[in-house]
Amino acid sequence: MITVATLSLQKRIFISVGLFVSITLVVVWYVIRPKYEQSVINERTTIVQQIQQYALQTSEEKIQSWVNITRYLAHEAQTHPNELDIAMRQNIALSPSIIQIVITSPPLNDTLTVTNTDYLGFTFLLSDDEWKMHKHDSTTLVQMVYDSLRTMVIVAVKKEFILASKHFFITTFANANEMSESFTKLPIEGRYGSIVRSQQKIIVHNTADFDQIAWEAYPNITSLRTTDAYGKQYIVIASEFSTIPYSSIIVIPASLFLQPVERLFTYSLLFLAGVMVVVMLLGWYVSHQISKPVEQLVHEVEQLSSLDFSKPISAIHLPELSKIGTTIEAMRLILERYQRMNVEKIIFEEWKNKFFLSHSQDMIALTNPDGTFSFMNDAFARLRSELAYTAPVVKRDDLRRHPNISSSKESVRTEQSGTFTVTIHQQELFVKQTHGNHQYLRLHDVSIMKGDEHLGSLLTLHDLTTDRLIEQTKTEMMNVIVHELRTPLNSIIGYASFILEEALTEEEKKEYTTIILESGNHMNTLVNRFLDVQRLESHTVDYPKEQCDLVDIARSVCDSLQPQLTQKKLTLNFSAETNLPTVFAVKDLMREAFLNLLSNAIKYGDEHRTIEVELKKNNTHLQFIVTDFGYGIAAEDQKKLYTKFYRVTSNPKTVGQVGTGLGLAYVKEIMNYHRGDISLESTPEIGCRFTLSIPILHT
Ligand code: ADP
Fold first, then answer.
1. Pairing assessment for the beta strands 610-617 and 677-683 based on DSSP bridges
2. N or C, where is the chain less crowded by C-beta within 10 Å?
């Protein structure tokens, strides 16, 4: 539906101008025009009436002068009959309009004619019926008539006089052309009718067209009236001569009077049409001036609505709209900033995700629909280059078909998410590496399908090698414990059977029972030490720490080992820096650590040695150093020295010593518990030098 709101500015201007012009036309045509026409008719009628009155007046004056001459001559004829001829000639000479003067006496059949030489040859056909009595002089008759050739209008004045008892008539013929023209040639443009008539007939007329109207107007017509004839309106202006029974009738078509009105209205219409065209052109120009920047603005705002904030809003060169332009530009700048911030955020998020993925310990790769890799993190890239030695891994499936990879524990799960199908493929891969190592990996292959179309996959490989090794170590550990316990257990069972079954001497019984006891103790030590290590390793027990004077502890441990030292003829040199600080530690565990190191120092070396025990401080740690000058430990054995149940087998001298292989592992765990450290320096010159570093700061 078309409403004002849906119309463009241009159309609104056109419609407004059209309406305004139409209403103006209607008002002018139906309200102003009739009034104006009437006033024009009135005015012009008055003018014509005045012209008619003037013509009447001058005509009457002329007729009166001819009447006067006629009367004078009649009088002269009566008083000076002999001089009549001279008087007649004189009057003709004085009044050039007089054509002829004729004196007749019907019974005598005598005629005296004096003719103006200017009008020789004119004859007049007078009609006896047409003589009209002069209103102020009953003896004078007047007749208005054309000459016989109808070239001239004549006014004839006839007067009767008596001379010597005889009746005479003097008739004066005067040229009334001028008078007639004053009625018939009015200063009116166009066709109109003007006649001079008696009661019986028309004497003069300018054109025959209006005869009928003039006749119709008669006899009632005395003054102004309007009449309709031939489908037209006419204005009839009539006036009577005052001296003779003639009247002047002027018939003018109303349209003639209205010609200027029509012209005026035609010009007004043309002017209005001109105004309309100008206003419309102006309106078009103005609306164009307004709509052009508006259209430009709309176009640019449309760009904003399509989320393209990059193009600045152009300046609008129209003060009324420039504010809108600048406001929208300000909005655009804000939106552009927000968009940029958003894009930056997205890029940042993407970068962050890639960063996470790249630095993930797991191997992660994304594939394209054709299976090629669109992304892989560092860990995956390393695996890929490792595998590339045997066969290239270009696509996703190359991984599972790779000769170095065998798989197990496979499972497949499918989930539907809207129009997408997500397939999660899990399996465990065993990867043989080029340098002989192997890796256990758990593969997660998440593939997305839309219908039959494969969109891509996310491959995640989690390294299970450590877990598998721990499991392996645990199994091995169990085997070691079982193995370690089996020997003393077998001796306990064996010797106990001996005692029960064999007839043994008291001495033998004592000897075997002692072996059983030692084996039991060994088993006990083994189990207890193992549990000690486990407890520390698993952090299941919270040992209370306190301020400890390590010099005191070390000295008391040394004192407690005096019997063993004496037995092996060893010398122990104990030295401690003065004013050593205390440390925040578990006293018993510190004692255990020192005891283990010193026991090993005594055990793993020949007799007659010196063992040096030193306590000193570096910047942050307090150090307990034992140098034993004993058998030492080979470099390859040092690597596994702190592994549970590890015992050096390369050196036959150490193999002979009784031990659990748990001592150093225990010391290592004690140091871990105190955030300290154990280190070993071993050369043939010094044997072994173990250093325990315990942090001084309270922790
Ligand atoms: P064990 O109970 O066997 O002594 P440890 O864990 O204390 O267990 O020691 C592990 C191994 O390290 C020992 O079996 C021994 O071979 C070697 N070892 C430890 N201390 C010394 C040392 N001071 N000199 C030489 N070898 C040592």
1. unpaired
2. N
CA distance 653 to 687: 13
Q: Give the model confidence (pLDDT) of 503-547 as tens digits.
A: 888 898 899 999 999 999 988 988 888 888 888 888 888 899 999
Nearest Cα residue to atom 8 of ligand 1: 661
Per-residue confidence band for 699, with pLDDT thresholds at 50, 70 and 90: very low
Atom of ligand 1 minimally distant from the CA of 659: 2
Residue nearest (by alpha carbon) to ligand 1 atom 17 = 648
| pLDDT for position 565 | 95
Whether the CB of 642 sits within 6 Å of ligand 1: no
pLDDT at 193: 84
Cα–Cα distance between 586 and 595 in angstroms, integer? 14
Cβ 601 under 6 angstroms from ligand 1: yes
Dist. CA 596 → ligand 1 center (Å): 9
What contacts 594, CB < 8 A, 6 or more positions away? 553, 554, 557, 624, 692
Q: Write the single-letter amino acid at 166.
A: K
Backbone angles phi, psi at 484, to 5 degrees: -65, -35
Both tokens of 68, joined, read 């006067």
| C-alpha span between 188 and 257 (Å, rounded) | 9
359 phi, psi to nearest 5 deg? -95, 10
Residue 664 alpha carbon, nearest atom of ligand 1:
6
Residue 145: CB atoms within 10 Å: 20
Helices and strands (DSSP H and E) totals, the chain: 17, 24
Q: Closest Cα partner for 632 from 690, 592, 570, 671?
A: 690
| For residues 223-249, average pLDDT | 81
Query: Mean pLDDT for the chain?
Result: 87
491 CB under 6 A from ligand 1?
no
pLDDT higher than 60, residue 217: no
Going by C-beta distance under 8 Å and a sequence separation of 6 or more, which residues neighbour residue 102? 111, 112, 113, 114, 170, 171, 173
The Cβ of residue 301 has, within 10 Å, a number of other Cβ atoms equal to 14
Span 564-609, pLDDT tens digits: 999 999 999 999 999 999 999 999 999 999 999 999 999 999 999 9
Alpha-carbon distance 604 to 682, whole Å? 13
* Sequence-ordered alpha helix ranges (H) in 502-578: 506-538, 550-560, 562-567
Alpha-carbon separation of residue 63 from 90, 119, 173, 439 (angstroms): 19, 19, 11, 155
Q: Could you read off the pLDDT of 312-324 as tens digits, one per residue?
A: 888 877 777 778 8
- 454 forms beta bridges with 449
